[in-house]
């Protein structure tokens, strides 16, 4: 089992409740639910069925909120963010291949 310090450093550890995540992002819980339905984020479910969000998921949701606030519809924002993340991952993979 991970040490508590490891969990605090883990970008994917689901440490935030839906209410806290919405507060951090400055959005409604409904906005977070819609991002889940759009498949941008898939929150962890606690034993009681409550949604829990990681820092990584909060960053994605914040990017989506910013884009929506500037007039981009949610479906387009989700697609753009997914493509940006795929490009970033491909670039990281390419750089690690070149290093070897």
From TrEMBL:
InterPro entries reported in the protein's UniProt record: DNA-bd_dom_put_sf, MerR-type_HTH_dom
Record domain HTH merR-type: where: 15-83
Pfam families cross-referenced by the UniProt entry: MerR_1
Superkingdom of origin: Bacteria
Name of the featured protein: HTH merR-type domain-containing protein
């Amino acid at each position: 089992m991970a040490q508590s310090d490891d969990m605090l450093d883990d970008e994917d550890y689901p440490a935030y409740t839906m209410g806290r995540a919405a507060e951090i992002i400055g959005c409604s819980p409904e906005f977070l639910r819609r991002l889940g339905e759009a498949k941008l984020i898939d929150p962890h479910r606690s034993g009681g069925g409550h949604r829990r969000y990681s820092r990584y998921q909060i960053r994605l949701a914040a990017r989506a909120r910013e884009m929506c606030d500037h007039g981009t519809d949610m479906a387009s924002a989700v697609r753009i963010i997914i493509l940006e993340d795929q490009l970033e991952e491909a670039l990281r993979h390419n750089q690690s291949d070149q290093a070897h």
